[in-house]
Amino acid sequence: MRNAVFLLLVLVLAGCHRQARPPETAYDPELLKLAQEAAEEQKNQPPAPVKEEPTRAEGECSRDGGGCPPGYVCWDSYFCKMGFTDQCSADGDRRCHKLCSDDGDCPRSEPRCMTKPIFAGSETGKEFKFCLGEDR
User: Fold this and answer.
1) Is-contact 92 114, C-beta < 8 A?
2) Which helix (H) or strand (E) holds 113?
3) Confidence of residue 21 (pLDDT cuts 50, 70, 90)
4) Residue 76: inside a domain, yes or no?
5) N or C: fewer beta carbons within 10 Å in the chain?
6) Does residue 131 surpass a pLDDT of 70?
7) Are 61 and 36 within 8 A, CB to CB?
């Protein structure tokens, strides 16, 4: 019985013929020439200049008015400690800084990815990781 199944399988597989590839002459020579010219033209193009991403948007920003592009945070922090007398202090430079997860995400001008709290006038702030210079 096994021999019969094996023989049937051999006959079925032997009856399958390979799919033929289209001959090289099936392609339009003009189309091949245009494709080669386009590939050569693209290869001869000078590489696009590498533009470093800006660390900050131009001008000042504020936590209330915004002014930063997506992927940036405004470092405008105003911390107030409530007590017998309100004690408030401002922190930050009111500039847009690039959000990051590690130092590798930061440009050369501000190479350190640091976690800083940003306060909006209360004792509780929200922490952000953004790029800062070495002096911060």
Assistant:
1) no
2) strand 112-119
3) low
4) yes
5) N
6) yes
7) no
Regarding predicted confidence, which is higher, 54 or 134? 134
Rounded Cα distance, 96 and 74, in Å: 4
- Whether the per-residue pLDDT at 31 is higher than 80: the answer is no
> What are 7's two structure tokens?
């023989």
Q: Which domain holds residue 79?
A: 72-132
Q: What is the pLDDT of residue 98?
A: 94
Is residue 133 within 8 Å of 120, Cβ to Cβ? no
The tokens describing 126, both together, are 């929200």
97 in helix, strand or coil? Answer: strand
- Whether residue 18 lies inside any domain: the answer is no
108 part of a folded domain: yes
CA distance 97 to 76: 11
Sign of the Cα torsion 69, 72, 76, 82 reads positive
| Residue 61 included in any domain | no
Single out the residue of 102, 106, 96 nearest to residue 115, CA to CA.
Answer: 102
